[in-house]
């Protein structure tokens, strides 16, 4: 990742960075998901944090799954937020993750935590960093998930959400453009949930509906 960041800086001022790479539970094992969705993001934050220009901004595409992950204790959260990227996958509690779905949610929660932790260093360079947590989006990956074992549950929560529909790539692109642009100049170190209201529906459903 360092050569990529250095190459980008040699080509000109690095003012906009968008990290979109990721694997979902139907696509890969827990180990692969942690390597790409967790470690990959950490490496981009570290390396592009060295070269981002004043006035620059980065957006990490995370997932609403990070808002639904099982709670961690304070020590685990600190470890995910601050452990150097090359040591992340050696954290003992990550070695116990064998479920792709658990690994995915944990990686996305870690994205939120690392963006928060990185915002101070980015700010000292005059730059901003945020993440976006999409819901279920009509992309090849999203359609794979809908066709998988959890597809029926996913459709039911979409139906119960405020918008009642899948997201589109344009929905996420618009949110990304906002966080990269001047209208969000006072926004840094936060996560923007762009899920059509799915997380809100899950958190506020009556017991009979949730069941």
Q: Could you please describe the fold and organization of this structure?
A:
The protein is of the alpha/beta class and 211 residues long. The protein has helices at 2-11, 30-51, 74-82, 100-124, 140-146, 151-160, 169-180, 198-204, 207-210; strands spanning 14-19, 52-61, 128-134, 191-194.
Task: Describe the structure using short key phrases.
about 210 residues; disordered C terminus; four-stranded parallel sheet; about 50% helix; 9 helices; alpha/beta
List the helices and strands and how they pair.
Layout: H1 2-11, E1 14-19, H2 30-51, E2 52-61, H3 74-82, H4 100-124, E3 128-134, H5 140-146, H6 151-160, H7 169-180, E4 191-194, H8 198-204, H9 207-210
Parallel strand pairs: 1-2, 2-3, 3-4
Helix pairs in contact: 1-2, 2-4, 3-4
**Helix run count:** 9
Quantity of strands, as a count: 4
Tell me about the largest β-sheet.
4 strands, parallel
Average pLDDT works out at 94
Q: How much beta, percentage-wise?
A: 5-15%
Briefly characterize the structure.
With 211 residues, this protein is α/β, with parallel strands linked by helices.
